[in-house]
Amino acid sequence: MNIIILGAGQVGSSLAELLVTDDNDITLVDLDNSHLQRLQDRLDIRTVHGHASHPDILIQAGLETADLLIAATQNDETNICACQIAHILQKSVTKIARVRGTSYLDHPELFDKSLNDNAIPIDVLISPEGLVTNYIMQLINYPGSLQVIDFADGRVRLVAMRAHNGGPLVGKKIAELKHHLPSRLRFRIVAIYRQDEVVMPTGDVTIRVGDEVFFMAEPHDISQIVEEFRREKQKRARNIMIAGGGHIGFNLAKQLENSHQVKIIEHNITRAREIAEVLDRAIIINGDVADKDLLIEENIDEIDLFIAVTNQDEANIISSMLAKKLGVKRVIALVNNQSYLDLIHLNSIDIAISADRITTNNLLHYMRKGDTVKAFTLRRGTAEAMEVIVHGSENSSKIIGKRLIDVDWPQDITIGCIIRDNKVMLAHRDLVIEAEDHVILFLTDRSRTQQISELFSPEQKRGWLR
């Protein structure tokens, strides 16, 4: 696929790095020539130095033959303008734009053709702040989870969690788990990571303390399954403190304030007053999120969950570590710098999330070959979960009409479930694949995505399907 990425920031660079290994032709456009040169020295990509919304730069980047344009600069107006110009110059290109400003997002008629015939021609609109807010809300809804990802429009979820000493299922073989759980609970373990080494989840594998377990289940079963991996029942967070009153912190408080006791610490007095006027029940505190005395004064020892979402990585890391030291059981920190993310896994912060990585993941399936509905990288980019639609017939497909056990799957892959007619069917060896099934799978080796594409696409349609 021929892909143009506008903006070589965290999102643009991450996308280029992810996609360059998937047999794509990547062109990256940015104003910072030295940054482009560093990326080109490291990645097999083409770069164009210039303003992302200028017509001559878009043409130089190869717009005429592009399949996909991703406008991911730091400037909303540049992204919107670039998509508008690209539509005029090359109508068939699929256009994705990152837009942050609530002034735009609060007016869907600007982008939705069903509401406005003259809508701005953007095919997919991505809001990083909204994506991060939804991601954190999932972690709050399932206490103890490390990661929660929706598939099939929320009919099934992939959950990652840590197995704790004393948990009822710790020390049991996977094949024995069904004997230790209520019969109504349905789930499938798709991967286990043990000290950063992957363990394929065969029936003979025993779950050990410290294992990071990935499982798939329907939403109504997840909470109880999560509890079975813990040594004690995890209470839902009642008292929540949010560090940072920006878009993410404000939106979290707005969703949580009616069901939780919420406090927000915001250092900017003007912003603190603005959100205080809108929020009904949340308590707004003007101060430094890393001020130990302030945290103690605000009864940090009574807080169940501390969420650091300021626009500074350092403030988020320091305040989270301080909150943990002062007795908070669970902390979540927003951290975008990749070097910081790698270090954080060695300290006391429970969950570190990256807005850029979450944004990248929500764009990834548009770049996957075959009819991929969703793709999400996991384990800091080493693994991937995918939802792929099976097309074709028994005559044109390598997998339709076959039992899962009879398909020649690539190594390092686990089939989680199949969605058929809105029904979730957890994978088992005798389950037969049918046309138009949605198959959700887990790859411990992301280099297998090309093989997956070839398996799922019918012979006459091999390649990228829009």
TrEMBL record:
<dbReference type="InterPro" id="IPR006037">
    <property type="entry name" value="RCK_C"/>
</dbReference>
<dbReference type="InterPro" id="IPR003148">
    <property type="entry name" value="RCK_N"/>
</dbReference>
<keyword id="KW-0633">Potassium transport</keyword>
<dbReference type="InterPro" id="IPR036291">
    <property type="entry name" value="NAD(P)-bd_dom_sf"/>
</dbReference>
<feature type="domain" description="RCK C-terminal">
    <location>
        <begin position="373"/>
        <end position="458"/>
    </location>
</feature>
<keyword id="KW-0813">Transport</keyword>
<keyword id="KW-0630">Potassium</keyword>
<dbReference type="Pfam" id="PF02254">
    <property type="entry name" value="TrkA_N"/>
</dbReference>
<dbReference type="Pfam" id="PF02080">
    <property type="entry name" value="TrkA_C"/>
</dbReference>
<dbReference type="GO" id="GO:0005886">
    <property type="term" value="C:plasma membrane"/>
</dbReference>
<dbReference type="GO" id="GO:0015079">
    <property type="term" value="F:potassium ion transmembrane transporter activity"/>
</dbReference>
<feature type="domain" description="RCK N-terminal">
    <location>
        <begin position="237"/>
        <end position="353"/>
    </location>
</feature>
<dbReference type="InterPro" id="IPR006036">
    <property type="entry name" value="K_uptake_TrkA"/>
</dbReference>
<protein>
    <recommendedName>
        <fullName>Trk system potassium uptake protein TrkA</fullName>
    </recommendedName>
</protein>
<feature type="domain" description="RCK C-terminal">
    <location>
        <begin position="146"/>
        <end position="232"/>
    </location>
</feature>
<dbReference type="InterPro" id="IPR036721">
    <property type="entry name" value="RCK_C_sf"/>
</dbReference>
<keyword id="KW-0520">NAD</keyword>
<dbReference type="InterPro" id="IPR050721">
    <property type="entry name" value="Trk_Ktr_HKT_K-transport"/>
</dbReference>
<feature type="domain" description="RCK N-terminal">
    <location>
        <begin position="1"/>
        <end position="115"/>
    </location>
</feature>
<keyword id="KW-0406">Ion transport</keyword>
